[in-house]
Amino acid sequence: MRCVVANWKMNLASEEARSFCEDLLAHFTPSAGTEVGIAPPFTLLHLVSGLMRPKGIMVFGQNGHAEAKGAFTGEVSMPQLRDAGCSGVILGHSERRQFFGETDAALAKKIKAAWQWDLLPLLCIGETLDQRDAGQTLQVLGQQLSILAETGPGPLWVAYEPVWAIGTGRRAEAEQVREAHAFIRAELNRHFAGSEYQVPILYGGSVTPESFPELLGIPEVAGGLVGGASLDPKKFAQLVKQAS
Ligand code: PGA
Fold first, then answer.
1. 54 CA distance to ligand 1 middle (Å)
2. How many CB atoms lie within 10 A of CB 68?
3. Ligand 1 atom having least distance to the Cα of 7
4. Cα 26 to Cα 87, 182, 232, 234, distances in angstroms
5. Is 32 exposed, middle or buried, given 0-12, 13-18 or 19+ CB atoms closer than 10 A?
6. 151, 111 in Cβ contact below 8 A?
7. Who is most buried in 128, 153, 197, 240, counting CB within 10 A?
């Protein structure tokens, strides 16, 4: 299975989102074996899920709280994401880890909460440039995946996103991607041993239609989590076609 997910981050307002969806649908033909998702900001979830879910496109939250409800000003819960039309939720994006203090301990709880509300978690992991330069990449990835020992197996997608490649135009080299994805696969096999769950591993970080075909040729790269290039419906449609 191939997967392509648009991460809009904190971009677009309702009219732009509506015209993105119309434009994408004009260039998009669903294909068996390719899952397409969009992760809009919370305010656009209802609009985007209303337009996209009937066409078989998944909608993801960009984050979700572990508690179902309560006094958590500014947060959105998993049942609220479901209510807004989501079938999945991005968890542990490096921007959440870096700017909002997201911890591995919190992420373990969020994954369990997502499962409880029937949402597919898309867990993001990746090393910083300092960590890569210090030769710690695989150690960092192993640490970030160690929360799966606590959650146990379940439906999951993982995105390998080297922090230094996000929004920088500097994509990881094929060999770096190959090594990281092979390691992630081995860790997933260990954590999910004997379970029925097949976890696709996406690559993220400056994915464009120019770089995506090469990435898709790397073993264990099941697709992409796309930021910048996903704001242009024609480029995003092209990425979906390349994956199909
Ligand atoms: P980018 O973002 O494609 O703009 O590098 C990817 C991401 O943050 O998920």
1. 26
2. 12
3. 9
4. 23, 36, 13, 9
5. exposed
6. yes
7. 240
Alpha-carbon gap, residue 16 to 188, rounded angstroms: 38
Q: Which CATH class is domain 2-243?
A: alpha beta
For residue 193, report the distance from its CA to the centre of ligand 1, in Å. Answer: 30
The pLDDT tens digits of the residues spanning 170-218 come to 888 999 999 999 999 999 999 999 999 999 999 999 999 999 999 999 9
Tell me, what amino acid is at 216? L
Instruction: Domain ranges for the chain, please list them.
Output: 2-243
Mutate which of 123, 201, 226, 232 for ligand 1? The one with the most ligand atoms within 8 Å of its CB, which is: 226
Q: Is residue 161 flagged as an active site residue?
A: yes
The pLDDT value recorded for residue 107 is 98
AA identity, residue 165: A
Q: Both tokens of residue 218?
A: 């790397």
